Each structure stands twice: as C-alpha cells, then as structure tokens.
C-alpha cells in the first residue's frame, strides 16, 4: 500500500484529501506544521508528499527543496495562489506537479496515481537499465559512450555526467543551481554559468539543430529538462 504524507495546515482541506485518497486505497498521514512535516518527509517511508505552500514553521517551498535534496519521491504542491511565478519557483526547486485550490478531489487522486505510476515505472527501468535510447540518441552508461544516429560523439566527463543525469530523469525541471551541485559538487570551483556553458556545448554535439533543441529544453526562469 502506497503511503502519502499530507502537509497542510487547513484541517478541512486535509480531511478532504485524506478521505478521497483513503477511499482509493492509499495509507495517509497528516501534519499541520511545516517544520514537523519537513522532518517526517525526510525521515519517513512515504511514497509521495502533498505539500501546501503557506504553512506555519517551514514553507512548502523549503520543504520541497530540502526533501528533493535527500529523496527522489513525487512531490505535489497544493496552493491557493495562481501566480505563474509561484509555479515556476516550485517546479524549479523540485516539485513534480502543482494543484491550485479549489480543486476537484477526483483530479487530485488522479494526479497522485499518475505520478506514483510514473515513478514506479522509472524505478523499475533503472534497476537494470544500462543504456538509454531516445530519438536517435544512444547513451551507454557502462562504456560512457554516446552516439547520435549511429555516429559517436566525444563528450568530456562532465558533459557525459550532465547528459546522463538529465536523461535518467526525463521531464523533470532542474535549476542551474541544482545541476551545478549535483554534477560539480558543493565544493567545486565555479558558478552556475558553468552549467549554461556545458549545456551549450552538449547541444552543439547532440542536437540536430542546437538553436531548436529536441533533447535538452530550456525552461525560462527555471532551468533545464530532458525530453524523451
């Protein structure tokens, strides 16, 4: 049974979410305080988090950011705000989806199921996947070789690491800061411009038309994502 943690300070909304999710067979727990919710999100064995943005203690944005640094589970943000900037910010720090209040409980359940199903398929594939094939792009993780339409391309170590990281998590948006930390490490010399330069170089090597990328897409104001 999949376990879901709801972090929501409005008891009425939390009860509504819990009722519909439990009716569909999910095990649900609830935290009203953001700080406590963050602790449980980091250390509990939950399969998905439903996180409100405006919370006492610790905001939903901070919860999403901290959990994403440690865990790779679906995170859906619930908010009464409709500003695109909030959606962009949430996606940029690792949220998988956004649901705006008021929402249909059935839509909520459907999105939860979809994200859990996608996540499970990804995990299953990753258990034994050593090669990635996407639209003529072939990445061999064992030999660290890359081919485009059967033609081998030469990548630097960091270019390969960046490409592989993005390709293994398709459609997820990563900020430049997050990519720099993941690929170069917290103690690496340089700044986020390093990511921009490496993406530009990768596009020249793997994209049919670098100015119109089909693999590494720019999400303006947020970062990059890989399209499969």
Protein architecture, described:
This protein has helices at residues 11-23, 34-43, 60-70, 84-92, 105-128, 157-167, 176-184, 193-206; strands at 3-7, 27-31, 48-52, 75-79, 97-100, 131-134, 137-140, 145-148, 151-153, 174-175, 216-219, 223-226. The protein is an alpha/beta fold and 228 residues long. The chain has two domains: 3-126, Rossmann fold (3-Layer(aba) Sandwich); 131-226, Winged helix-like DNA-binding domain superfamily/Winged helix DNA-binding domain (Arc Repressor Mutant, subunit A). Strand 7 (137-140) and strand 8 (145-148) form a beta hairpin. Helix 1 (11-23) packs across helix 5 (105-128), helix 6 (157-167) packs across helix 8 and helix 7 (176-184) crosses helix 8. The longest helix is centred in the middle third of the chain and has 24 residues, at 105-128. It is elongated and about 55 Å long. The two termini are 30 Å apart. One of its GO terms (biological process) is regulation of DNA-templated transcription. Keywords: DNA-binding, Phosphoprotein, Transcription, Transcription regulation, Two-component regulatory system.
CATH architectural name of the largest domain: 3-Layer(aba) Sandwich
CATH superfamily of the largest domain: Response regulator
The top-level CATH class of the largest domain is: Alpha Beta
Mean pLDDT: 86
**Number of helical regions:** 8
- Strand pairing plus helix content: what structural class? alpha/beta
Assembly state: single chain
| The number of domains | 2
Please give the alpha-carbon distance between the first and last residues: 30 Å
Q: What is the H/E order? A: EHEHEHEHEHEEEEHEHHEE
As residue ranges, the low-confidence spans are none
